[in-house]
FMN-binding domain-containing protein (Methylomagnum ishizawai), 179 residues
Amino acid sequence: MRNYLTAVFLSLALAAPTALGMVYYSKEEAFELAFGKEAEIEAQPVFLSEEQAAEVEKTAQAKLDGHLFTFYVGKKGGQILGYAALESHTVRTQPEMLLVVLSPGGELVRAEILAFHEPPEYQPPARWFERLYKRPLQELKLNQGVDGISGATLSSRAALDSLRKVMAIHKIALREEVR
């Protein structure tokens, strides 16, 4: 699965910008956004059991694509700064890749669009994502605490599904490993 995500990211990153798509940040730039220049980045694969996957889907109210997931742990001086995930999904017919950054405790602290290949008017603005920070997973639902974006309903719904999935995987699988 990690190789799949890397291949998806590279295909998105290497794609030339078109009228219907844009790559904003490379993988390295994304990790710098997440943790700063001096951070050490360590990949931490998470293998979900059948039970964990079912619990993640129930908690996130979103379907998983598989049972293997990779978090990137940002560290500085041995301290964990947080966890980042590269979440790729299809919005309508084209891909989008998000950088989802969680605090060490699993709180959403940043979300950035790394690549967006739908028409630009369907893209949620940065200020929309900023309103989601530090909110509980259960509150990240369209029209149930989160306002929709006129003309970008599918994009905002797909982004919220991704954010909830990442937060649920962290809560259910990653934090269990730490215990």
Summary: The longest helix spans residues 153-178. The chain has one domain: 2-178.
